[in-house]
Write a structure and sequence with these properties.
10 helices, NADH Oxidase, globular, single chain, 210 residues, four-stranded antiparallel beta sheet, alpha+beta
Length: 210
């Protein structure tokens, strides 16, 4: 645990990346697997994660992110996109996955599936999309922790035009909407932010034990 805390103290929201340094395939796969294993409500994972490496597309995304250089200089860009208007078909797909993975007859999982469908059906479209969007942030947190364990820099970013991202990445046709992004790579030696002391609330100010 002390190593995890050391790594979390080491990480920061990198402002300037070294475009000449790339994350290895092995490390990238480790980060992807950590994101895949991330927690989500019911285990539904109502989102997709798009990893952008294509330089032309990244230039377009940079323009839609107000010119932030992380979009083009980082090794990869992870775009988290929530399912828009999650429906019963997503629940059925998840139930089938549980059935196949655990060797349980789908019929035995019908009650669990109906419960999830009822929960989803009782939500308005706005509430449903807010809920699925929140799930992407759980996965983002897992990415940040996993990257820090590998001494790979990562920057969570909300400063972008989601509608433009959706258009550039074709999310509208996939029933997805971009919610948050993470630049992944290696800090540039000229990024002065890496030398700043980490500023967080004290335990006394942050935590309330009842």
């Amino acid at each position: 645990m002390s190593t995890l805390l050391d790594n979390l103290n080491w990480r920061y929201a990198t402002k300037k990346y070294d475009a000449s340094k790339k994350v290895s395939s092995a490390d990238l796969n480790t980060i992807k697997e950590a994101v895949r294993l991330s927690a989500s409500s019911y285990g539904l994972q109502p989102y997709r994660v798009v990893i952008v490496e294509n330089p032309e597309i990244r230039e377009q995304l940079k323009a839609a992110a107000y010119g932030q250089t992380q979009l083009t200089d980082a090794s990869q860009i992870f775009v988290f996109a929530n399912d828009v208007n999650l429906g019963a078909h997503s629940v059925d797909s998840y139930i089938n996955n549980i059935s196949e993975t655990r060797g349980i007859p789908a019929d035995a999982l019908a009650g669990f599936g109906d419960m999830m469908k009822g929960t989803v059906a009782n939500l308005s479209d706005d509430a449903k999309n807010t809920w699925t969007a929140k799930q992407t942030y759980i996965a983002l947190g897992t990415l940040l922790a996993a990257a820090s364990e590998l001494k790979i820099d990562a920057t969570p970013m909300e400063g972008f035009n989601a509608a433009e991202f959706n258009k550039i990445l074709g999310f509208d046709k996939l029933g997805l909407s971009a919610t948050v992004i993470a630049a992944v790579g290696y800090r540039h030696t000229e990024d002065d932010t890496q030398h700043f002391k980490k500023v967080r609330k004290s335990n006394e100010e942050l935590f309330i034990t009842i």
